[in-house]
Specification:
InterPro entries (chains A, B): FAD-bd_oxidored_4_C, FAD-bd_PCMH, FAD-bd_PCMH-like_sf, FAD-bd_PCMH_sub2, FAD-linked_Oxase-like_C, FAD-linked_OxidoTrans_Type4, Oxid_FAD_bind_N, Vanillyl_alc_oxidase_C-sub2
CATH class of the largest domain in chain A: Alpha Beta
Protein name (chains A, B): FAD-linked oxidase
Structural class of chain A: alpha+beta
Helix content of chain A: 25-40%
Distance between the termini of chain A: 31 Å
Low-confidence stretches of chain A: none
Cofactor (chains A, B): FAD
Pfam families (chains A, B): FAD-oxidase_C, FAD_binding_4
GO molecular function (chains A, B): FAD binding; oxidoreductase activity
Oligomer: homodimer
Largest interface: A-B, 88 and 88 residues
Strand content of chain A: 15-25%
CATH architecture of the largest domain in chain A: 2-Layer Sandwich
Largest sheet of chain A: 8 strands, antiparallel
Shape of chain A: globular
Number of domains of chain A: 4
Number of helices of chain A: 16
Chain lengths: 432, 432
């Protein structure tokens, strides 16, 4: 067989080096042997047939924005870089669906949908740089999940190339369908370990009319969560920033949010619900701003990550807990930060109970960040939650996956991997 | 081992006869040997350990409201009747979740949630008689799916007894989670062929404030669909009844809906969206009613099935098509009815492109109904849709499943079945 199945590739040093790691900053040993640059599904099939015939481990990659090492590629592996397959194949306003290649940038799809009055709802913080394929691989979330759910809830069907190069179609182009077992859902969140998505049919949503955004400061996170619990209806967005995050934002933007209160809650709601939201937040808020311009009030939230990056290398963690345990989680995370004497800024998709404790790494004390992260994962499980709400497992949480899942579940997980990829060539060492 | 693993059981004639079929009216040969009546998860585990050790086929059953023969049980099988496991184990307003046993009646859960201002969103037409376990088995839908999605979108985690009696926990109690492959989604819609659900953690939703319901008659279904396409926002409900359905309702309720127009569209929307809904429907509607009492206007829709039952035994079909193909589907179904000279009344969850063509069986010409059904499934596939939107495959659509799914997909489906149930004792002959 032709080298790499005849698929375009690069073995240039710069290309190989750029594909060895991802946004997690973690790396495995060495670097990939080559980076394949498929142009279409046929190229992906050729690459996988070649990989199967040679037993070569393949690391599928979108934009490399994984925060868990899911796209890291080391010695002996070949990267399948899908970022060049970035066409929006079709977009139907009448059906409220789009068919996209995996390399499409998420925000680009959202903008294309907006031209016909629709939105692609999932909006991970990385949406301007991450790809739909990567979002599918991790079942990515975002701010709007409060209302619209995660990536899984917007994916109707997939075209997938299996490990041996066979192409299968899953799901349908319809909003509902229960013809056979849910293979679509199985591929979503599987981090490229079960097959390679070459096309996705996604659901688009109407852009809601007349949203009101309210930013309210509270004495502490517990007060903010209590107030949020009294909010009527389903907020579109409900974001919480803790004191450490607010201090970082203040230093970056020149604001004085931390002085107002130790927690900032930003809620976006429909105009029907917003009077009730105001009534719920006002009694205990120490300050409150209302705007029909959501972007202005969300600016602090969207600036949080660059703000924290000023403090050092951020390790972006991702746990979820039952909503009622959110205050307890935020307090416990602050305790962990104090105990390990390491900054941890916490952002939360509060309506979903999904927290991003962002640990600022101290290179002089590498054990501190790792220990703090371990305590955060243990906390999530103790509170009845999960070690990952929307970022996935990758390499960094594999150990913890075995603590979250019971042995019989893990046995089935390994059985699934073996069923789809008996040779173990698809993103080996990730998830399981 | 003790007979049936020591689980309470019945072998009374009346009990066996009552569990041999389901609401599809179809049956397999003979009747079950026994009906097991587990009281809890431990009983289910005992039953499955016994079944594995004896190689006995087990037919899990809720309320027996399957419309596809998924609960039919014949000679040599033992029915595992879960309707007695009907406790709402917990319901948390703060977390907006509930933990329920599989035998809980769907509407009972919704009413329990309503006492704390929440709803369990999925509302199949059978919600007053069907169980959560059965809803999970078929990934049931309903009227409110337009806004809230199907059962899968409300199930966060499951406790499942596997074929060999092992208990596993899937998913989490949180709204988001991507720790490992999505086993929860795999069990939802699997019709009892992969494992037996003994507990489900479900998501509850806020009850939306201030809904407006609009019932509009149109000259034909195409005009109704065109008008619906112009509706802003996300309707909570959008139901369509065709001319044949309206005639049946008129005969049953003494109304004169069919005289107004050949299609009735009932849209429920938020007060923000309702002015826009009115603007979209009014120009082409031949009559229009607006009410804040949704139940009154939905009465015609909810009466449709009993109305059609007056005409004869209804075969309730269930296809879904891309939304834009809905008018074409309705017209083609009317043509099929005319060609086979058999009444077909069509109800549609119009916002989802999900149609229920209800064929009124003519016992003197059994081939007519079957042929019409076949043409309807072929139509669904021709229009880019699916042979089942929310009722599942059961025994009645197995043949058609092999036409909808490509061979590689089917191979994986069979591999999944074999992985979870290597002896093939779980609801054999269903789905695959």
């Amino acid at each position: 067989m032709t080298e790499f199945g005849g698929v375009p590739f690069s073995t240039e040093d710069a290309v190989l080096d750029s594909r060895r790691t991802d946004r997690s900053g973690s790396a495995v040993e060495g670097r990939p042997e080559a980076v394949l640059l498929p142009r279409d599904a046929a190229d992906v099939a050729k690459a996988l047939r070649w990989a199967t015939s040679t037993g070569t481990p393949i690391v599928p990659r979108g934009a490399g924005t994984s925060l868990t090492g899911a796209s890291t590629a080391g010695t002996g592996t070949v990267v399948l870089d899908l970022s060049g397959m970035n066409r929006i194949v079709s977009l139907s306003a009448a059906d409220a669906t789009a068919v996209v290649e995996p390399g499409v940038i998420t925000a680009d799809l959202d903008r294309a949908a907006a031209t016909v009055g629709l939105r692609y709802a999932p909006d991970p913080a990385s949406h301007e740089i991450s790809t739909i394929g990567g979002n599918i691989a991790t079942n990515a979330g975002g701010l709007r999940c409060a209302k619209y759910g995660v990536t899984r809830d917007s994916v109707l069907g997939l075209s997938v190339i299996l490990a041996d190069g066979t192409r299968i179609e899953t799901g349908t182009g319809t909003f509902k369908g229960v013809a056979g077992y849910d293979l679509t859902g199985l591929f979503v969140g599987s981090e490229g370990t079960l097959g390679v998505v070459v096309s996705a049919t996604v659901r688009l949503r109407p852009i809601p009319a007349g949203l009101t955004t309210i930013a309210a400061s509270f004495a502490d996170a517990a007060a903010a969560c209590t107030a949020l619990a009294g909010v009527p209806g389903q907020p579109v967005i409900a974001e919480l920033l803790d004191a450490a995050a607010l201090r970082a934002v203040d230093a970056y933007l020149g604001t004085s949010l931390a002085a107002r209160g130790s927690a900032l809650l930003i809620v976006q709601a429909s105009t029907v619900d917003s009077p009730g939201v105001l009534s719920a937040l006002r009694p205990t808020a120490v300050s409150l701003e209302v705007s029909s311009d959501g972007d202005a009030l969300l600016h602090a939230r969207r600036s949080a990550l660059p703000a924290i990056e000023q403090l050092g290398r951020p390790l972006i963690e991702d746990i979820a807990v039952p909503r009622s345990r959110l205050p307890e989680a935020i307090t416990a995370i602050a305790d962990i930060a104090a105990r390990w004497q390491i900054p941890i800024c916490t952002l939360a998709h509060a309506a979903d109970g999904n927290l991003h404790p962002i640990i600022v790494d101290d290179p002089s004390r590498p054990a501190a960040a790792a220990s703090a992260a371990d305590e955060i994962f243990a906390l999530a499980l103790k509170l009845g939650g999960t070690i990952t709400g929307e970022h996935g497992v990758g390499t960094l949480k594999r150990e913890w996956l075995t603590r979250e899942l019971d042995p019989a579940n893990l046995t089935l997980q390994r059985g699934l991997k073996n069923l789809f990829d008996p040779q173990g060539i698809l993103n080996p060492g990730k998830v399981l």
